[in-house]
Specification:
The complex is a heterodimer of chains A (434) and B (299). With 434 residues, chain A is an alpha/beta fold. Chain A has 2 domains: 180 residues, Periplasmic binding protein-like II (D-Maltodextrin-Binding Protein, domain 2), CATH 3.40.190; 212 residues, Periplasmic binding protein-like II (D-Maltodextrin-Binding Protein, domain 2), CATH 3.40.190. Chain A has 19 helices and 10 strands. The longest helix of chain A has 19 residues. Chain A starts with 5 loop residues before the first helix and ends with a helix. By secondary structure, chain B is mainly α. Chain B has a single domain, classed as Orthogonal Bundle (MetI-like fold). Chain B contains 14 helices and no strands. In chain B, α13 packs antiparallel against α14. The chains are: A alpha/beta (434), B mainly alpha (299). At the A-B interface, α3, α11, α17, α18 and α19 of A face α13 of B.
Chain lengths: 434, 299
């Protein structure tokens, strides 16, 4: 047997070390294949449990990658991503909402290799998924899910005021709401500063009357006859048909109000219905029947210029400071593999709609007809900033709640002219800033 | 006799020793006060956004915020919020301190309980207030309705003026104990002989307060007001939890708006400019109060 002298050992290890240093990368066996993934606390807790207890251990087996999942309140994702980027360290994969990938684009790894393949294999991404995750130069994040925003309403109460099916136009909805409020069962809607239910109502209302933040060329177009009509409509609609406490609601108030039977309808994710399914004995109607049997869902009504939706959209960004980018991408590929993603999707029971068209055909949608309207959430959805791109300017308008506040001002008693002039002025300043 | 080493000899010199004794404080002040402040100033003069260091753009951020109507609303709100709550906190705090300065059974218990609003983490107590102001389930509304005082719901956080009033109420509730306990400490340093002498000279209760207690309590009061104004001016948690700055920006303060712009929109430089806009106003308040305290002390 050849002798392995101390000199030989030093030569070999020295050469090895030089190689490692030259490649700026630790050898494979020494790399820690750990991915830190941060996402929101799911409104369907069973899904987070499924990830933790079953899917992530499986990913470990299949890929040899350990995934540390951290879940935080949805409102805390932005402070976390900001501090992570500024300090250059933190989770490898970040869940982001709506058009936030555009805000953090400079710190994103191009994930077109992952996203393009998934989109292609799954029937193509919806427009809102593509617009929110691409800046034209690179793919900023991998689309994850659309949290459909639909009106949850009490079927029997609408029937009592003469609507055997849900109103199809805003005018009809106004009429129904007026009759319902007269019976002490108003419509519940937030116009407060809250990231979910407020903009998902106010933006589609604007769009359906033909109002838009900017035109296709990016020129500010908010101050228009169409916008004015929508604000005038909302002012009367608010007074006649709404619970006026809604100006102070956050994303949870309408859930509580609906479940306690004080409002007849509200725009929401499917969480109200899912809660009544979970606790049929706790949530009852005034006739002591389970409330779940009296809940139906509908998209927002149609306006003079069409029917639109704006849904909370989620995607995952691989951070450029991450030392585990390859593993992070491998993991995202794995979890979006239809046989893996399907398990998560089914556990959501329709609360989340996948971002690609093929999933509309999934048999899960046939299981519960009440959840069926959520199937096409992604198809009807537009992005903030419409008819322009959902870029950083659009993100600023959204986070300043300018569109929502335009309606809130009118609801509080400002003249529609004043409200539109104020909002158009603010939007103008944002888009004209360099 | 053993000769002393060079370090011991150097430390014998007063200026060297003073420097080394002050060094840790200086280091902490530099790291945690001076550096963030200078960095904040730099940020406000740059076009830095999250993940992009940006470059110097002069006062452009300040021009932008001063033409921003939401910023002007936030600035106005902050001044009104600070002024009104400070008056109430001082008046109620002083009143409470005078009551607690008397002798009664269970005095120490009452004093401890008075501090509760100040001790409970603000976010926690504010969440409780949020429930009490809840548009649908407000316990105040329930109570007033049961007592036949109201026949429709009060929109505590949904009406712009009432929302501002509601957050002021919570701020006063939280701030009064700080005033009361600090002023109580001040009251206890006043020699009772002075009151006795004044009483013998025929001063009534109000005169004793106005000519004896108040002048002696003034330096403590000024320091307490100074701290409180700074804290109230930069308040964040109450508004963030109760209204998020809504409805329609009616309750935005400097800090909540800076957070919204800096963190929500990723415009770090503009957020820094909004935060720094507080600085001149606060500086004036601090300079005036410190000058006044010195004047009172030198009297």
């Amino acid at each position: 047997m050849a002798r392995f002298t101390r000199r030989k050992f030093l030569q070999a290890s020295g050469a090895g070390l030089a190689g490692v240093l030259a490649s700026h990368q630790a050898p494979v066996f020494a790399q820690q294949s750990t991915v830190h993934w941060i996402k929101w606390n799911d409104f369907v807790p069973a899904s987070d449990e499924l990830l933790r207890k079953s899917m992530l251990p499986e990913a470990m087996k299949a890929l040899g990658i350990k995934v540390n999942l951290e879940t935080v309140n949805g409102n805390d994702l932005q402070p976390r991503v900001t501090s992570a980027i500024q300090s250059g360290s933190g989770p490898d994969v970040f869940m982001l909402f709506n058009n936030h990938p555009h805000i953090y684009g400079a710190s994103a790894v191009d994930v077109s290799d992952v996203a393009d393949a998934i989109g292609k294999a799954q029937g193509g991404y919806y427009n809102l998924a593509k617009a929110n995750t691409s800046d034209g130069k690179k793919t900023l994040s991998v689309p994850w899910a659309v949290i459909g925003a639909m009106i949850a309403y009490r079927k029997s109460w609408f029937e009592e005021v003469g609507f055997s099916k849900f109103p199809e136009t805003w005018e009809q909805y106004h009429d129904a709401g007026k009759k319902l409020k007269a019976k002490g069962r108003p419509i519940g809607q937030t116009l407060g500063h809250t990231f979910g239910d407020a903009p998902t109502f106010s933006y589609p209302l604007l769009w359906s009357f033909g109002g838009r933040e900017v035109d296709e060329k990016g020129k500010v177009a908010l101050d228009s006859k169409e916008t004015m009509e929508s604000v005038k409509f909302m002012q009367a609609f608010w007074k006649d048909a709404h619970d006026e406490g809604g100006l102070a609601w956050d994303d949870t108030n309408n859930n509580r109000a609906f479940l306690s039977g004080t409002i007849a309808a509200t725009l929401n994710g499917a969480s109200i219905y899912i809660e009544t399914l979970r606790k049929p004995d706790q949530y009852k109607t005034e006739k002591n029947t389970p409330m779940k049997d009296d809940i139906r869902h509908s998209p927002l009504p149609r306006g003079p210029k069409g029917q639109f939706g704006f849904h909370l959209f989620q995607s995952h960004m691989v951070m450029s400071y991450s030392k585990n980018q390859k593993a992070a991408k491998e993991f995202l590929k794995w979890i979006h593999d239809p046989k893996n993603y399907e398990r998560w999707f089914v556990s959501q029971k329709g609360y989340s709609t996948p971002p690609a068209a093929q999933w509309e055909k999934h048999k899960m949608w046939d299981e519960d007809p009440v959840m069926a309207p959520f199937k096409v959430a992604g198809r009807l959805g537009l992005t903030p900033g419409y008819a322009g791109p959902p870029n950083r300017k659009a993100a600023e308008v959204l986070t300043k709640y300018i569109i929502t506040d335009m309606y809130a001002k009118a609801a509080q008693g400002s003249s529609p002219e004043e409200a539109v002039k104020w909002a158009a002025g603010e939007v103008g300043k944002i888009y004209s800033a360099t | 006799m053993a000769t002393r080493g060079p370090i011991s000899r150097a430390l014998e010199r007063e200026d060297t020793l003073a420097f080394w004794l002050l060094a840790p404080t200086l280091l902490i002040l530099t790291l945690f006060i001076a550096y963030p402040f200078v960095r904040g100033v730099w940020l406000s003069l740059s076009n830095s956004t999250v993940g992009e260091p940006g470059h110097f753009i002069g006062l452009a951020n300040f021009y932008k915020i001063f033409s921003d109507s939401i910023f002007r609303t936030a600035a106005y709100n902050t001044f009104v919020y600070t002024a009104i709550t400070t008056v109430f906190k001082l008046a109620l705090g002083l009143w409470l301190a005078l009551l607690l300065n008397r002798h009664f059974r269970g005095k120490s218990w009452v004093r401890a309980f008075i501090l509760l609003p100040f001790i409970i983490p603000t976010v926690l107590s504010t969440l409780a207030w949020k429930w009490m102001f809840d548009p649908t389930f407000s316990v105040f509304n329930w109570l007033f309705w049961k007592l036949h005082i109201i026949n429709s719901r009060i929109n505590w956080l949904g009406d712009p003026e009432l929302a501002m009033g509601s957050i002021m109420m919570v701020n006063v509730w939280r701030g009064v104990p700080f005033y009361a306990i600090s002023l109580l400490a001040g009251l206890q340093t006043i020699n009772p002989d002075l009151h006795e002498a004044a009483a013998i000279d025929g001063a009534n209760r109000f005169q004793r307060f106005w000519y004896v207690t108040w002048p002696l309590l003034l330096p403590v009061t000024m320091v307490v007001v100074l701290f409180s104004v700074i804290q109230t001016f930069a308040d964040f948690q109450l508004v963030y939890v109760l209204t998020g700055g809504g409805p329609a920006n009616a309750t935005h303060l400097f800090a909540t708006y800076a957070y919204q712009i800096g963190i929500g929109t990723g415009l770090l430089s503009e957020g820094a400019a909004i935060s720094l806009a507080m600085f001149p106003a606060l500086l004036l308040v601090v300079v005036f109060q410190l000058w006044y305290i010195r004047k009172v002390e030198n009297r």
